[in-house]
Structures are given as structure tokens and as C-alpha cells.
Amino acid sequence: MDYEGPRPPRRPAVREAIDFTPTVVQFFGSTIHCRRLSDSPALLAHPSSTRDLLPPFATRESPYDCLCTRFLKCCVSKSRGTVNCLQWFPDGRRLITGTSNGDFTLWDGIDFGFFDLKQLNHSAVGALTRTHS
């Protein structure tokens, strides 16, 4: 066994973070001159229209119009299982998911790394409700 010296340092993993602030700024800028939210201009089916995306609360009648599928990604926790329900915290920085394994996972809503994993049920989690207490 030959000694080849110290190993070179590893490069840190690059984690992409998504900033949702521009969509909120776009919402306030585009709705100043609109009497109703339905008067706001429609999005075109073109990649250049991603800068005109609005936050989901801006189109309550069809919130799926605000999804930008370009930035969707799959995040895997330690125990694999399908996610049955999720609930965002009011500050928008964290979310909690309930899986088919009975696990509750607390995720970071900015870079989507998971904070904590707890198995509290032995059956699937079907619904989540957040309260202030």
C-alpha cells in the first residue's frame, strides 16, 4: 500500500435556490392599473413569459397557471415513500409533508433540503392541517 499524500479537498455541493420575490413584485406592478385580478394580461406560451409569472395567490380561480415547470425538481429524503399531503408554513420558508409510510418530513422551502424526519404514524398520512397552537 503506497501513500500518495493528502487528498485534494472536495468541492462543496452547489444547491440552487429559487427566489419568489420577483413574482410578488410583478404582481404588485401589474395590478396597480387593474380593477379586478381577471383584468391582468394573460401569459403567452413562450419561454420569455417566465418573467411575467405571478404568485399562486394572484390567480385564485386557476392557481396552476402560475406553475413554472422549468424549476420543478425531485427531492428525496431518507425513507422513500410517496408524498400524500403537504402544508406550507405561513412565512413560506418551510413546509411539512406526510408520506405513505407514516413519516412527517420538515423541508426547507428555499433550497429544499430536509430538516427533520419523524415517524409518528404506522399508517399513511392522508391530510395535514396547521394551527397556531
Oligomer: single chain
What is the general shape?
Answer: flat
The structural class is mainly beta
Q: What are the segments in which pLDDT stays under 50 over at least 5 consecutive residues?
A: none
Instruction: Write out the strand line-up for the largest beta sheet, numbering strands in chain order.
Output: 1-2-3-4
Supply Rg.
20 Å
Structure characterization notes:
- Keywords: WD repeat.
- This is Anaphase-promoting complex subunit 4 WD40 domain-containing protein.
- It is a single chain.
- This protein has 133 residues and is mainly beta.
- It folds into two domains: 21-71, no CATH class; 74-133, no CATH class.
- The chain has one helix and four strands; from the N terminus they run αββββ.
- It has one helix at 21-30; strands at residues 83-88, 94-99, 103-108, 114-119.
- A four-stranded antiparallel β-sheet has the order 1-2-3-4, with no helix packed on it.
- It starts with 20 loop residues before the first helix and ends in a 14-residue tail after the last strand.
